[in-house]
Each structure stands twice: as structure tokens, then as C-alpha cells.
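Researcher: I'd like a structural prediction for the single chain below. Treat it as a standalone chain; there are no partners to consider.
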Amino acid sequence: MFSREEVPQGVLLRSPYPMRVSPHYGEIRRDWHQWFLSTERFPTAERQRQVVAADYPRLGAAAWPVCDRRRLWDITTIIALDIEGDDDFDANRPGFGDADRRRALLSGLAVGFDSGFAERAAQAEPRWGPLFADVWKSLSAYVPPPLLRRLAEDHLRYLEGCARVDDHLAAHGEFTDIDDYMAIRYYSLGQRMDHRYTEISLGIDLSDVIEEPPLKAVVDSDMRRTTISQDVLSLYKDLGPGGDQTENIVTLIARTRRCALPAALATASDMFAAEVRNFDRLTERLARTSLGRRPDVTAFVHGLNDFCAGYMDWTTGSGRYTLRDTCPWWDTPDVTADPAQGRLPRG
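Model: Treating it as a single chain, here is the predicted structure.
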């Protein structure tokens, strides 16, 4: 079995796709952080430093680079709530923290998403519910209702996925099978919400075709490559100083194959590379169909690769994962995206 001393730092995986950053990142970064800290969800100076060092506006700007300013603000807000809420879930998972608190978080937010954050439902989970309600109201002003419904449904599936992890651990203990782990992570990762944010950032709505088999195959492959890369890139956060998250594909490989962490990491990196090749084959196959030649579908596929490049760069450098108070891009010029590129005309 591995030891914590084996946990590596630094760049563990690189995206195979080029990265670009929204030019609005510099405009909103300071104002957004000031607003988020003013919500009084982070009462200590240490937590406030951690939030700033996580730099959620950078994730929004790099993973969804063609956002206009309003979309970037809203997507940054909702992903920050998704991630900070997920931290609350993790802190109270079975065997850690307060299990009743975790159940209350999951059920309270489920009430909110199920109702579209109607007034009373927003209070069902008082820590994050009112903030979700505010951003939901903003999104409702410009996101098509079918897409907004799918976003709510994907949040509900994510919350159900978190509960399924609890049920699995309670019934079986730690994971012992990679396929079982990947199947449950399909929903508990929350990547389906990120797909909806890609549509929102591009100004498109794929409600009529998102379940078509050729496109669904691409989406499923992206889910797998994100699950693998996220687990690899979060390894230091999960297992480094103070880390206690051992349910990670790298640690699962080490545990089931009884190998050292570097060998398990190499296996996971090979799995990621294989899934990238599979994703590229599936997108090429999709491009040869009438569905794949639709401009909105083409934009979506490019948006998935923007997300892959941007979130991998953010996860590698964000203080959330390096456990530092600074981020490398704060002093480095970015390759910015043209907000008009990749987004379809509206009208």
C-alpha cells in the first residue's frame, strides 16, 4: 500500500488541447471575490484566503472562455457554489463529520433544484440555498427554459450520486472495483452540470439532440476522461497535508493491484490518454454525421475541449489543489479568447 510521502506535487497531467482564457477574467476577478466574501459564508481569515487562492473566476474564464461578462459572472458563481457545497458534503461523509448535516445539505438543496428555488425552497438549505436562488434568478433571465430544466435535473442527479456513494460505502466499505467506482462517479462528479454551463456559455440549447446516440457517446467519453483527470490532478489535495480523501481512482488502483502510488499514477495517466484518444475518435465519427455538422453541436464539442484544457490548467495551479496562497497565472499574461469565436449569433 502507498504512503502519503509518495504523493507527488506539480504537473501530473497535461491537457492535449490548447487553452485560452476569457478576456473578462481580469475585469471580474477582484469584484467577484469581494462580493463572494461579503456573503459571510467564510468567517475566518484563513477561509477567505483559501477562497481567493482557489480563484473560481479563473476556472470560469479558462473552462468557458467565450463567455460574455454576465455569463462569466453567473457561471463563476454557480460553480463556486457547486464546489464549496461539495466540500461541505465531503467534510460530513460517512465516517467523518456530521452525517445528519450531510443528509440535510443533500435533501435541502434537492428541494431547491426541484422547485427552481422558489422562495421557501431557497431556505430549505440556509447556507448555500439563498445564493443558488440568486444566481438561478439571473440565469432564468436569459437561459432557455428547457436548458434550465436540464441544469436542475443534472444537479438533482449529482445530489443523488452523492447519496449513492454514501450507500455504497455503508454497504460495502471502500471501493474495490474500478468499473463500479467509475459508474457511481458518473453522477457524483457533477460533470453533467459543467456540460450545461458549456451550452450556456455558448448561447446554445441542445435539448433536442443531447441524448442522440452519437452525441451521447461523446458526452459519456468526456465524463470518463474528466473523472480520471480530476482524480489524478486532485491527488495532492486529497492525500497531501491534512488530506483524507482516499476514494480516488489512483488510490483505488494502488489498493486493488497492491502497487506503489507512482505505478498506480502511471496506470491512471495511461487510462486518461486512452480515453482522450477514444473521445477524439468519437468526435471524428460524430463530425461525419448530419448531427455533427450542426453548428451548435460543433461549438459544443469544441467547448468540451476548451473545458478540458481550462479546468486541467486551473486544477494544476489553483491554491485549492496546491494548498498555496497564490496562483501562477496572477503574474503571467494569458492567451485570451475572442468572445465572439465559438458562440453562435443570437437573434
